[in-house]
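#struct-pred

JT: dropping the chains for the assembly here, can someone run the whole complex?
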Amino acid sequence: MPTNTMKAIRLHGHGGPEVLRYDEVPIPELEPGEALVRVHAVGVNPPDWYVREGMTNLPPAMRPPLGLPAVPGTDVSGVVEAVAADVDGLAVGDEVFGLLRFPGPEGGTYTASAYAEYVAAPASDLARKPSGVDHVHAAGAPMAGLTAWQFLIELGHDHPSPFQAAQHRPMGLNAERTVLVNGAAGGVGHFAVQLAKWKGARVIAVASAAHESFLRELGADEFIDYTRNRPEEIAHDVDLVLDTVGGPDSGRLLRTLKRGGALFPVFFAEYDSEETAKLGVTTSGTQVRANGTQLAELGRLLDAGTLRVAVDSTFPLSDARRAHERAARGHLQGKIVLTAV
Ligand SMILES: NC(=O)c1ccc[n+]([C@@H]2O[C@H](COP(=O)([O-])OP(=O)(O)OC[C@H]3O[C@@H](n4cnc5c(N)ncnc54)[C@H](OP(=O)(O)O)[C@@H]3O)[C@@H](O)[C@H]2O)c1
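RK: done, full complex below.
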């Protein structure tokens, strides 16, 4: 049984990786609907460093309240240590993984808490860890895998998106479709490549040269090194662009699409409505949401070997600072994972 304190990484203020502190804190108390998970590994995701920086990438009016001190992180893999009395279907000793409490309550305080030895997790956010996948790899799957799933396969909820009024609708993928994944080697991108292949689509992967063999092994049919070539000058008649890079440069990818095609920005981007109308294409995005049921489906694909999680690098939980320094250098191939046992 645990003592009543644990180690966790906390932010006491916002700033660079140096603000991540390895503290002794109380083990969280269980609320109804929750399971206490002994964390074995933590997946690192871009929102972890957005929060660390104080969400300065959002306009001030859109920034969620961030109570301090705060334990960052949303993705865990671990073992159930206790369950609240009202939780069915989970028992002490079960191996689980999950994206926890994302995106959090509307307008509420940031409540993620995964950079810790224990986490009180909503049971509905958890799924059984695939038995053939270790905790490090399982921890890399939840946010990035669910993002690719909810953009490409099934949204799975009817919550409004903060980014657009219309509900996001994935495009049915099959052998007739060509999908271009920009930022293909990163967390979301490498799952998107594999899910599009699973559905039979032809996949064009856009990334820097070092990732070519990795992406071809994951099933990419074509590879474009964006440091040497401009994808919009090479790719044509694409049905769907999944752009995990987004930002002001995203609009140029509209020109790769056939009429009736769609561009899905995973990171916020704005498009010229006259240009989309002229090209006969649409754009649509969403915000990933925690979903234990969908994660269980991803788990089955991971167990079957249909999907795999690539791990860029691992760091001990106590060294979360170095993990964030690695993230800041960019060019990730798969996921950064923290180990907590
Ligand atoms: N909408 C949502 O709910 C949601 C959910 C998850 C993530 N996101 C956002 O999606 C973005 C990607 O997340 P992630 O976890 O996949 O990030 P990541 O793991 O850091 O991957 C980013 C990838 O992009 C590549 N890249 C960088 N610049 C590029 C460029 N100009 N052209 C093509 N590739 C480029 C990088 O490698 P190379 O440069 O070496 O190719 C890297 O592999 C983040 O901005 C994140 O905030 C949004």
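JT: nice. The chain has two domains: 5-146+288-339, 169-283. The pocket of NAP is lined by residues 45-46, 143-144, 147, 182-183, 185-189, 206-208, 211, 226, 244-245, 266-267, 287-288, 330-332 (CB under 6 Å).
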